[in-house]
């Protein structure tokens, strides 16, 4: 009976008492600090809290997407949802078609750089390009709308090919 009375406390109890001592020491050190000294830790805590919240937004968005995917699979059937996912991946793999203005602006930016024209900021350059676009005569503007139509045709063809490739890959995996 005397041997059990002198035995060391169980590990969990030792950890608990060590944690209590450490917590008391940290609290005492905190209260001895001036408000200016504490501010560093308050700022760091706020920064870490903001990082955590940003990560949680991404995490909860990913969880929500997965839950929505699972819900749609149950509601519409797995095959239908998989087809939609393949179509989405195909659309994302193909470069979107550009508008006539976007094609014109890209061409003019390269032309301006080749001429050595420099702009102080992007806003000024975009305002200049926009004014040039509005001043284009209809025949010149048609050149760019035709180019945009060709780019749309390219997109449609690439999208169809990507959809076919996604379809053939899904058949091979089954």
Architecture overview:
This protein has 174 residues and is an all-alpha fold. It is 86% helix and 0% strand. It has 7 helices and no strands. The mean pLDDT is 82.
Helix and strand arrangement:
Blueprint: H1 2-5, H2 11-32, H3 35-76, H4 78-93, H5 100-115, H6 122-135, H7 138-173
Distance between the termini: 70 Å
Helix vs. strand class: mainly alpha
Unreliable stretches (pLDDT < 50, length at least 5) are: none
Overall shape: flat
**What's the overall average pLDDT, rounded?**
82
The biggest sheet, with number of strands, parallel, antiparallel or mixed sense and barrel status, is: none
Q: Give the strand content.
A: under 5%
Order of helices and strands: HHHHHHH
Cα Rg: 32 Å
Number of strands: 0
Helix content: over 70%
Q: Number of DSSP helices?
A: 7
Outline:
This protein has 174 residues and is mostly helical.
Keywords:
single chain; 174 residues; mainly alpha
